[in-house]
């Protein structure tokens, strides 16, 4: 197998063990909610909860345990208090007897939140994500709403409809007292309701609470006139969204009064976007641990009441640690390296580039603010340790390179598809998401032993739950009505890109039922050139390559694997941005197929009676 870089982007000052979770990775907006998710068995990635939140083990079987000891109360809004239920969720009661400081017992309703992955339904998966960028494919819904995905976690919430009228300043849940601290809301708080449908890669669309905060800030700074989509005000996700947004907006209002410039900087960081040509995309901080730290710091002023200057210093430190650039390779074949650089700062920056084995040959590149720039570099002869070094302000990258050209010798060359397409948090961290091991894809290039022509063999593994994807029941031509192969997100297929980067000669999508379409319309690949076989747990496509593609002894190949019921797309040889959809190419040298040394022929046996 050819050498593939284990890290596509690397940043010296950032941790190298940034792991991209393959299960639930939820936005961190309400830290008590996250604590509840973790206690319920959620494998989301987070590193903190709100100040004074309880980090306790589960209560005895069949009991509620509060996950916070301090709650910030907004006037005229219901208060949601997160609870962990130690037993089966279906056995949890719908009311709970809480006590006041004076000892009075009041029955309060308990409502249940379900956080579920959108999967199994290709239409919903593709519609939700459109090759997701800033949002994970999860829905936050109230228990009892229509099904449509696997439940990942089941937090419970104790609901106080009118907390301002609660006698005393505390609430007793079992043996735990929760302090109720009233806070003054932001008088100019914008609505956090969903934005109108039809946004692209640049708006906070998910139902996670952190996106409710971003939607409020979006309306304040970007589009104050954006209408709100219809939403039931009494649904649990809507109540949680308004509570989270209200707390954040109140804290940010206080910060603007203390340090207007810092308050504006953090608000704009939370909704930061940038441009890639005509496409605007989200570039805001997305790592759950970073958002948990920011939330805990913002809300500490109301809970722990630190001095104004220490509080502002902690927030200033958080803002200073947010990355303002990104660097990655989009194509690295032959004698050229295609580098992409993102300047996320609000001012111009200079990038310095050099190949590591030629440190004195430095190229300087001026980067416009909030935009992506690209540069094609002439690649020097490669040494085993060669990398491309990039420096933008204080951020330094060492980008691994692929082999400039891979020789294909008998019996053939095999590659695995290593990456999923870029998502925002992975892109900022410099580590693309790995593929789902249960749905791995293997690509093999060889000369056909039977027919002598060049061929590509693609083997796609399937999770047991999705083996039905190969059946193709009732589908005559699933590709006929699609405008472009990118619309296949959420449906099982393999797309081969053959020819130059961004301008393939062949862009052929193959489905498990044997249907094929070449989106490049080159007419080089015909239906009879593609054979599909189905076996338990996998399906295989064998593609006979037209002679025109390999006549010069070179093949440039890229591939995209899409999955039934999933929005994610696997990429080879480089991860792709979801709005560009081109993963680059690997350059294969086919001209030396016959150059493999053959074993010497056996010498003829000596004739009887002759000397040896």
Question: What would you say this structure looks like, in words?
Answer:
- The chain is of the alpha+beta class.
- It contains nine helices and 32 strands.
- A hairpin with a 6-residue loop joins strand 23 and strand 24.
- The longest helix is centred in the middle third of the chain and has 23 residues.
- It starts with 30 loop residues before the first helix and ends in a 23-residue tail after the last strand.
- The N terminus and C terminus are likely disordered.
Q: What's the mean pLDDT score?
A: 82
Shape: globular
Q: What's the total helix number? A: 9
Distance between the ends? 45 Å
| Estimated share of beta-strand residues | 25-35%
Key attributes of the depicted protein:
disordered C terminus; ten-stranded mixed beta sheet; eight-stranded mixed beta sheet; 9 helices; alpha+beta; 17% helix; 32 strands; single chain; 612 residues
Topology:
Layout: H1 31-39, E1 64-66, E2 70-73, E3 79-85, E4 95-100, E5 105-118, H2 122-129, E6 138-142, E7 149-153, E8 156-160, E9 170-173, E10 176-182, H3 209-221, H4 236-258, H5 260-270, E11 273-276, E12 279-282, H6 288-303, H7 308-320, E13 325-333, E14 336-343, E15 349-355, E16 363-367, E17 371-378, E18 387-392, E19 395-400, E20 406-407, E21 413-416, E22 419-420, H8 424-429, E23 441-447, E24 454-461, E25 493-498, E26 506-510, E27 516-518, E28 530-535, E29 538-544, H9 547-550, E30 554-562, E31 569-572, E32 586-589
Parallel strand pairs: 2-10, 20-32
Antiparallel strand pairs: 1-3, 3-8, 4-5, 4-9, 5-6, 5-7, 5-8, 9-10, 11-12, 13-14, 14-17, 15-16, 15-18, 18-19, 21-23, 22-31, 23-24, 24-29, 25-26, 25-30, 26-27, 28-29, 30-31, 30-32
